[in-house]
Amino acid sequence: MQTLLLLGLVGLLAQLVDGSLGMAYGVTSTTLLLLVGANPAAASATVHLAEIGTTLASGISHWRFGNVDWRVVRRIALPGAIGAFAGATFLSWLSTEAAQPVMSGILLALGVYILVRFTAWGTPRGRIGLPLRRRFLAPLGLVAGFVDATGGGGWGPVGTPALLASGRIEPRKVVGSIDTSEFIIALSASIGFLVGLGSAGINLAWAAVLLVGGVIAAPIAAWIVRHFPPRVLGAAVGGLIVLTNVRTLIHSELLVIPPVAQTAVYTVIVLAWAGCVAWSLRAHLAERRPALETPVVPDAPAAPPAATEAAEARD
Cβ(147)–Cβ(154) under 8 Å? Predict the structure, then answer.
């Protein structure tokens, strides 16, 4: 029961992150599932099964608000589904001992990317331009789908910044299109895990609890995105992912590190993490300062009725 409550909290926190940043649900959920003892393939399979429900609800919401570019969805979803299926079957064939450091390495790279991305440059922005071409979207979808399945997440961290950096689609439609197409990715990855692991490899209770936590968090995330700085949240989440996956790698059989060195590594990561969060907060406040300091010009006082009548008479 305690494990289910913890997983419900994991799903809630992951959805809060994803709803505020437009990415990192899978990375956050899978990292925390590994932390509580799930094996890599089962963790990724459980997260993707839960994502079928969360991404469907998210896609419908974005569609209702007009945040979806269906041309982008059509061109990126099919290659993404192929990559996700391939990544799921590949991860299923690996032994647990081999998959653990592989997945942690992928998650670590994604965590470093998220940390640097939001610390150095803040929320990605792009400019509106020409329509996105299939020769750009197809390889992007294939790579993002494969990374998403093997790493337990990555569709958002890989796809969203790439689309924003292209400068050819509105930011709100980037998030909406990525979230909508992710339903196909989660479905394809789940099928791949069913083929590779069978239903016995997926914990349905865990997936259901993650789903419930995500549904509860959805409206809260909508409030957070209006009030909590995405730049600060991105740096905080990126540091958490880096720290937890470095811990997994240190305790794997690939690395033999003395306890003193382990403490030094953790100390450096925590200090760097705190510095990144502080820098992000400072940058956010600096970005807000010009808007706050802009003087408000009061409206001109209304002329008295007599003066108004006299002016009309002169005209």
Answer: yes
Dist CA 65 CA 234 (whole Å): 25
pLDDT tens-place string over residues 249-289: 887 766 778 888 889 999 999 999 999 999 989 988 887 77
**Residues 165, 157: Cα–Cα separation, whole Å:** 12
> What pTM, to 2 d.p., does this model score?
0.68
Burial group, residue 294, by CB count within 10 angstroms (0-12, 13-18, 19+): exposed
Interval 106-140: pLDDT, tens = 778 878 887 888 888 776 555 555 677 888 999 99
